[in-house]
Structure to design on (501 residues):
């Protein structure tokens, strides 16, 4: 781990390694700028050896070996994958560390700060207070360069054992996979833990980039992007970049976790659907076509809380960028069906919602949630993704397209609900009072009670991660905001959910 404490010269290639170029999405600064760590907190003692063996076993499976790959720069300065021909003690499939703290979590300075649900929607903690558990001691993520000067695998596991809890931290460089790719990884990890390796599909082959046609434009777009006329021009980009870039790179930020209990978000969901159904009836439309997801409603109230606390001018544009996976849109075309051969990598696009601050604060939540759903449905098609990346190719080298105007407020969303992190059952790794592993998974499910992510070095302001809901129906979301803004966010949260203070 010594490479984490300073830059070293690049290591020499190892003879026999399979060398592959990075794919289109892996060459993006959006992924290379982020080293990821997801912490899964279990209210049980788990066997670290079983956790390690099952994850290593997954990486050794046919088609999964890229997760044990290393990252190197070639003579031309291009980053490549170097995948060992075989894994060994000297060149393991994953990096691994285990720390046995020998105390209850409540007695540990960091673990005692694990956020807990509250009876009402609330800011419940600071994920950065657990950074010392997410990373190696003294480490601050520096992006992909951290992986270029050692033989470190791109995937790692760090396990913290307490007498009453276990924190399993999955670490990776974002070039390895995105949020939906994470779903396939943890599902495979769980299957190995349960002894069901035969249920693990062989991933989509990655020797060539399946999204190369999208990157190169070899297949022209068949339609114009729906927001093409709202693309920000050069002058607007400079104005927007000065504001948003200053917030991201210069101003101090605070990371916070927000928890919303089911008895608060569920009525909001039902009310929104009732309002949209009543509107459909009044307009003579088919009521059965009214549809919202829980994420649509959560995204809408986050938008309202952010805009409400910032006291914006009513006519100011608010742009919500919703990260989307491209897999569903391109299955059977550029990639095979995910159920048969999942694409374990990065394949992302964006849906963009453009509204005014006045609309957000004055119109009902149902209206805003419908704008979110409409953007996902209309901009999530294959043709719209192709149109989007056609605009990227025509851009000024940016990996994304900015829609709106130079004075807009930008809010980002990454929905991890489909990753199913709260649905994982690691009971086969549970250790009983006699210190024996529950290899058969008896004694009921063992699911995470808390999930968070830490990443860096890029930390944009108002970029919200929605992790999903736990067994009790609590929804969890976190973000970094400019220092001093979270108090106003909580006040708006109280107003939105009619919480008495």
């Amino acid at each position: 781990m010594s490479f984490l404490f300073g830059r070293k010269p690049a290591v020499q290639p190892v003879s026999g390694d399979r060398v592959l170029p990075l794919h289109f999405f892996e060459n993006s600064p959006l992924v290379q700028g982020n080293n990821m760590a997801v912490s899964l907190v279990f209210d049980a003692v788990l066997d670290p050896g079983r956790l390690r063996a099952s994850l290593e076993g997954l990486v050794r499976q046919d088609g999964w070996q890229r997760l044990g790959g290393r990252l190197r720069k070639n003579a031309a300065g291009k980053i490549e994958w170097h995948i060992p021909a075989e894994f060994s003690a000297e060149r393991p499939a994953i990096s691994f560390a285990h720390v046995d703290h020998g105390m209850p979590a409540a007695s540990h300075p960091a673990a005692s700060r694990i956020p807990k649900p509250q009876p009402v929607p609330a800011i419940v903690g600071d994920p950065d207070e657990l950074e010392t558990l997410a990373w190696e001691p003294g480490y601050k993520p520096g992006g992909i360069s951290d992986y270029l000067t050692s033989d470190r695998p791109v995937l790692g596991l760090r396990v913290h054992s307490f007498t009453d809890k276990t924190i399993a931290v999955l670490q990776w460089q974002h070039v390895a996979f995105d949020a939906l790719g994470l779903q396939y990884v943890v599902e495979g990890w769980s299957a190995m833990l349960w002894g069901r390796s035969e249920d693990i599909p062989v991933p989509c082959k990655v020797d060539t980039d399946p999204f190369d046609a999208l990157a190169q434009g070899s297949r022209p777009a068949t339609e114009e992007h729906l927001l093409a006329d709202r693309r920000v021009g050069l002058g607007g980009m400079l104005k927007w970049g000065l504001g948003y870039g200053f917030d991201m790179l210069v101003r101090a930020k605070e990371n916070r976790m927000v928890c919303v209990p089911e008895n608060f978000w569920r009525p909001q969901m039902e009310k929104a659907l009732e309002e949209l159904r009543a509107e459909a009836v009044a307009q003579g439309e088919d009521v059965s076509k009214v549809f919202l997801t829980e994420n649509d409603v959560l995204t809408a109230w986050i938008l309202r809380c952010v805009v409400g606390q910032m006291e914006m001018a009513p006519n100011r544009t608010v742009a919500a960028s919703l990260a989307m996976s491209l897999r569903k849109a391109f299955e059977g075309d550029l990639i095979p069906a995910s159920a048969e051969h999942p694409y374990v990598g990065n394949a992302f696009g964006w849906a963009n919602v453009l509204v005014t601050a006045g609309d957000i604060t004055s119109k009902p939540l149902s209206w805003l949630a419908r704008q979110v759903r409409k953007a996902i449905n209309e901009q999530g098609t294959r043709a719209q993704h192709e149109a989007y990346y056609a605009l990227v190719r025509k851009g000024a080298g940016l990996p994304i397209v900015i829609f709106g105007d130079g004075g807009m407020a930008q809010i980002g969303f990454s929905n991890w609900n489909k990753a199913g992190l709260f649905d994982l059952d690691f009971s086969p790794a549970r250790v009983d009072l006699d210190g024996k592993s529950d290899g058969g998974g008896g004694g009921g499910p063992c699911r995470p009670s808390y999930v968070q992510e830490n990443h860096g070095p890029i930390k944009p302001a108002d970029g919200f991660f929605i992790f999903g809901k736990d067994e009790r129906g609590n929804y969890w979301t976190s973000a970094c905001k400019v220092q001093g803004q979270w108090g106003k966010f909580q006040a708006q949260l109280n107003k939105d959910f009619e919480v008495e203070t």
